[in-house]
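Hi X.,

You mentioned you wanted examples for the new student's onboarding notes, showing what a folding record looks like when two proteins sit in one file. Here is a clean example. The first protein comes first, with its sequence line followed by its structure tokens.
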Amino acid sequence: MAAKILVNEKNTLEMDLGGADQSLAQLLAERIMEDKDVEFASYKVEHPIMSTPKLIVRTKKGDPAKLVLEKLDELKKELGEFRKQFSEITE
């Protein structure tokens, strides 16, 4: 997946999520919206077949790019734990 930053301003980040699908975009946007310093987080897909999701984050304060990285790390840890638990019950 080759993500690409399209807009990186003071409180606004817009990025193309590369090879990611809408599932990741939706999950990430929902997690970001849980943060009290976030004004807006969502994603858009300009064409369902020919384009990739674009994540848009606008914060009240703080760096939106740093926030996205933090939320990705949180999701990675949670999914790793889920994978571990799932592996234990399927062995």
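Then the second protein repeats the pattern, sequence line and then tokens:
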Amino acid sequence: MDKITTTVEIADQSGHTTLQLTKAETLSRVADNGGSWVFADNQMVQPEQLARADWETVGTVRIVPGLVGGL
């Protein structure tokens, strides 16, 4: 199960990076980007949900900066 990879897109102020990562590598990237929003297969998920996901069917994971509203 550790060898299964999925496409992970990480967006930041310089653009975005596309990687092929294992579940453990992806969860590490999510932890490194605290406050970011995480989407799995176009659905927003919490890191705990991603940790429990079936990695064979998770689809593309996107890590994007969280939006903050206000004046």
